[in-house]
Amino acid sequence: MQEHVILVDPKGREIGTQEKMQAHRDGKLHSAFSIFIFNAVGELLLQKRARTKYHSGGLWTNTCCSHPRPGESYHSAARRRLNEEMGFDCELTGLFSFIYHAQLDNSLFEHELDHVFIGHYNGQPIPNLDEVDDWKWMNIRALKQDIRENPENYTYWFKLTLDRVVEQSEKTIFPNEV
Fold first, then answer.
1. Is residue 123 part of a domain?
2. Does residue 178 sit within a domain?
3. What is the DSSP letter of 154?
4. Residue 98, domain extent
5. Which residues, at least 6 apart from 165, have a Cβ–Cβ distance to it below 8 Å?
6. Euclidean distance between CA atoms 153 and 167, whole angstroms
7. Active-site residue among 64, 65, 85, 110?
8. How many domains does the chain have?
């Protein structure tokens, strides 16, 4: 079954749909979401994208990313995909959205209006092995240091958003440190 993404204009208004791979080949602006899940001690749940993914395979990234389906809200899509990809569900809060454009591997482009969500979870994920090669909880300071030392190990959008996510969610993530 072919997946379709929702094409949008820069203000987020829907202007149509396109088959997902074609949209990534053409670099068309489309809707997406990124999820960042933190545990009670402020660690971020990372996933290593499966090497078989259509782009950015084998790279570490935030907990989950995907695209809403036509007719599906961002929030519903994020919760659906978190369960499909990482094997759990939790309450999600929207933080911000932004547009980015990047050329990736395999002659593909990401041109997304990305809605960022955070959530809290203290269990162990049960990842879908078709989507995820590995996972780990990581301290934010250690993570930022590793990104500085090994940026090639992380996805483009994750490096682009991490500081803003941490800054905008500090009171929620680190309630005793703020």
1. yes
2. no
3. B
4. 4-170
5. 36, 62, 95, 116, 118
6. 22
7. 65
8. 1
Q: How many residues in total does the chain contain?
A: 178
The verdict on residue 69 lying in a domain is yes
pLDDT tens-digit readout, 95-118: 999 999 988 777 888 899 999 999
From CA 35, how far away is CA 29, in angstroms rounded?
19
Residues 6+ apart with CB under 8 A from 145: none
- The pLDDT, as a whole number, for residue 175 is 54
CATH assignment of the domain containing 102: 3.90.79.10
Please give the pLDDT value at position 83: 97
Please tell me which residue in 43, 85, 110, 112 is annotated as part of the active site: 112
> Distance of alpha carbon 147 from its chain centroid, rounded?
16
Asked if 85 and 19 touch (Cβ cutoff 8 Å), the reply is no
Query: For 169, which DSSP code?
Result: T
- In this prediction, residue 178 carries a pLDDT of 36
Q: Is the pTM of this model over 0.85?
A: yes
Structure tokens at 48: 């290593």
Cα separation of 173 and 162, whole Å?
13
User: Distance between alpha carbon 98 and the CA centroid of its chain, in Å?
Assistant: 12
Q: Is-catalytic flag, 131?
A: no
Residues of the chain short of pLDDT 70, as ranges, are 171-178
Residue 65 among the catalytic residues:
yes
